[in-house]
Design a protein that fits this description.
There is one protein chain. The chain is 31% helix and 23% strand. The protein has 11 helices and 21 strands. The strands form 5 sheets. The chain has a 9-stranded mixed sheet with strand order 4-3-5-6-7-8-9-14-13. Helix 11 links the parallel strand 19 and strand 20. It is globular and about 75 Å long. Bound molecules: adenosine-5'-diphosphate (ADP) and zinc ion (ZN). Adenosine-5'-diphosphate binds next to strand 7 and strand 12.
Length: 434
C-alpha cells in the first residue's frame, strides 16, 4: 500500500463515507433550494422539497441538471452564493458547443486542489518531486487544478502550460522533472518528440504521468508508458464539478477512485433516467456535496462508464469509475452502426500504428462516408505502393471486425496529422455542417 494525501478520508469505511454523504446532502439540498431559484423551480416542478431529502438514498427524488440547463442559466443562474464570495471563474473547453462557466469560492478552490493532491500522491508524488504541468493554464481547469494540487503536496511545480514542445523538453531534462501532467495525446507527442531528438526513455527522470481531460485507451497507456519510461495514471474531472481530480487512478491502475466525500456518483440509463445498479454501464451523474460557488445537483455528464466497489489493493475505499468509454454525444452513428473513437484507437495501436489519427465522417448521396487517416511510422515506410495498399486493406479488415463496418483507410506520411497540445480533435463529422 502506498501513501495517501488524506489517509483518514481516503481509506474510511463505507459506513463512515455514507454518514458524511448523508449529512452533506441534507445541508446542500436545503442550501441550493434557498439560494438557486433555477433549481428550486425544477424541484417545485417535480414536487420535491428539501424535507423529502433525509439521506443520500433520497437523492433519486431530485431532478437532473443537463448541459442545456447550464447554457440556459448562463452565466449566473446556477450560482449557490453571492458573487462577492467567489474568487475564481473557470470555463469548459467547449468540446461540444457553447462554453459554460463555473464559479469558485476559496473553499471550493481548496477542496478542488486537495482532490488533485490526492491524485498526485496516488501517483507516487512527494515533496521530493518536480511536477511539470503542461495542461493549459487559464480558463481551462487542467493547469490551475494540477498546479494547485502540486503545491499542496509540496512538490516543486513547473507551470509550463501547453505548447512549445522544444521548451517543454528542455525544461524536463534540465530541471529533472519527475511527474508529467498533460493530456494523453500531448504526452504521446512529447514521447515522440523525445525520440526524434535522440533521447531514450531512460534518459529522462520522469517516473509517472497524470493524464486526463480526454478519452484514452489501455493501448494508448502502454504506448505512453513505453515511450516515456513511466507509469501513466488516469485522472478525470469536469469544469461543472470543479475540474480534474474528481476521480483519479491509484497504483492498481484499474479504474479511478471518485472522491466520494465531495462528489456523489450515480450511473443512470441515459434514455430513461433510471438509476442502474453497480457494475452496469451507463451515464455518469454527479452531485457536488459541499461546493459553494457552483453547487450542481445530479448533473448529467454524458460520460459513459461503469462503477465498481470491488476492494482495491491500494487501501482506498472510494468507489471506482472505469475509464469513460466515451461521451454519449461522442458516439457516431455511421450507416446505422454505433462507433466510438476509442474502438478505433484500440485497433490502430493493436495493429502497431501510432496514436496519430483522425476520423472523418460525411454524407454523400444520402450515404455516410467513413474515412480514417492514420500515419504510418518511420519503420513502416515503404516506397512500394503495393505495400501500402496491403497495409490499408489489412487495417480495414481489422476495423471491420471490431466495428462491424469497414472505413476507408488512408495511410499518410509521418507528421501530416496535426498534433494536439490540449485535447485532441479525433473526429470531424461533416454531416453536422450540411
Ligand atoms: P468540455 O466538455 O468542454 O470538454 P471540460 O474541459 O470540463 O469541458 O472537460 C470535461 C470532459 O472531459 C468530461 O466530461 C469528459 O468527457 C472528458 N474527460 C475528462 N477527463 C477524462 C478522462 N480521464 N478520460 C476520458 N474523458 C475525460
Ligand atoms: Zn486503489
Amino acid at each position: 500500500m502506498g501513501n495517501y494525501y488524506q489517509k483518514e478520508i481516503e481509506t474510511a469505511s463505507r459506513e463512515e463515507i455514507v454518514k458524511i454523504q448523508n449529512e452533506k446532502i441534507v445541508k446542500q439540498v436545503k442550501h441550493v433550494y434557498e439560494n438557486v431559484p433555477y433549481y428550486r423551480n425544477l424541484m417545485d416542478q417535480k414536487g420535491v422539497t428539501p424535507d423529502d431529502i433525509k439521506s443520500i438514498d433520497d437523492i433519486k427524488k431530485l431532478p437532473f441538471l443537463t448541459k442545456d440547463d447550464l447554457r440556459e442559466a448562463y452565466p449566473y443562474g446556477l450560482m449557490g452564493t453571492d458573487i462577492k464570495n467567489c474568487v475564481r471563474i473557470q470555463s469548459t473547453s467547449g468540446t461540444t458547443g457553447k462554453r459554460v462557466v463555473a464559479f469558485y469560492t476559496q473553499k471550493d478552490i481548496d477542496m478542488w486542489e486537495e482532490c488533485c493532491a490526492r491524485a498526485i500522491v496516488a501517483a507516487g508524488g512527494t515533496q521530493e518531486d518536480v511536477v511539470q504541468v503542461c495542461y493549459g493554464y487559464g480558463l481551462f481547469t487542467g493547469g490551475p487544478g494540477l498546479n494547485g494540487g502540486s503545491h499542496k503536496v509540496g512538490c516543486l511545480t513547473l507551470p509550463m502550460s501547453s505548447g512549445n514542445t522544444d521548451r517543454q523538453i528542455q525544461f524536463m531534462m534540465d530541471l529533472s522533472a519527475t511527474i508529467l501532467c498533460c493530456t494523453p495525446s500531448y504526452a504521446a507527442y512529447i514521447g515522440e518528440s523525445l525520440a526524434e531528438k535522440g533521447y531514450k526513455p531512460e534518459d529522462n527522470k520522469l517516473k509517472a504521468g497524470i493524464f486526463g481531460a480526454e478519452p484514452w485507451t489501455e493501448e494508448m497507456r502502454q504506448n505512453i508508458e513505453k515511450s516515456l519510461g513511466i507509469k501513466a495514471y488516469d485522472i478525470y474531472g469536469l469544469t461543472e464539478t470543479s475540474g480534474p481530480g474528481v476521480a483519479f487512478e491509484c497504483e492498481e491502475q484499474t479504474g479511478m477512485h471518485i472522491n466520494e466525500d465531495h462528489f456523489y456518483a450515480e450511473i443512470i440509463d441515459p434514455k430513461t433516467g433510471e438509476v442502474l445498479p453497480e457494475g452496469e454501464k451507463g451515464e455518469l451523474v454527479f452531485t457536488s456535496l459541499d461546493k459553494e460557488g457552483f453547487p450542481l445537483l445530479r448533473y448529467r455528464t454524458k460520460d459513459i462508464c461503469i462503477l465498481s466497489r470491488k476492494k482495491c489493493s491500494c487501501g482506498r475505499t472510494h468507489v471506482k469509475m472505469s475509464k469513460p468509454l466515451g461521451r454519449s454525444d461522442d458516439m457516431m452513428i455511421i450507416r446505422g452502426v454505433n462507433v466510438f473513437p476509442s474502438q478505433i484507437e484500440t485497433v490502430l495501436l493493436n495493429e502497431g500504428y501510432t496514436p496519430n489519427y483522425q476520423i472523418e465522417v460525411d454524407r454523400v448521396n444520402n450515404t455516410d462516408t467513413f474515412d480514417i487517416y492514420v500515419e504510418f511510422s518511420a519503420e513502416m515506410f515503404s516506397d512500394k505502393v503495393s505495400d501500402i495498399q496491403i497495409r490499408e486493406q489489412n487495417l480495414k479488415a481489422a476495423m471491420r471486425s471490431m466495428l462491424g463496418i469497414g472505413p476507408k483507410i488512408h495511410l499518410v506520411a509521418p507528421k501530416t496529422i496535426a498534433r494536439s497540445e490540449g485535447k485532441a480533435v479525433r473526429v470531424i463529422d461533416k454531416r453536422k455542417l450540411h
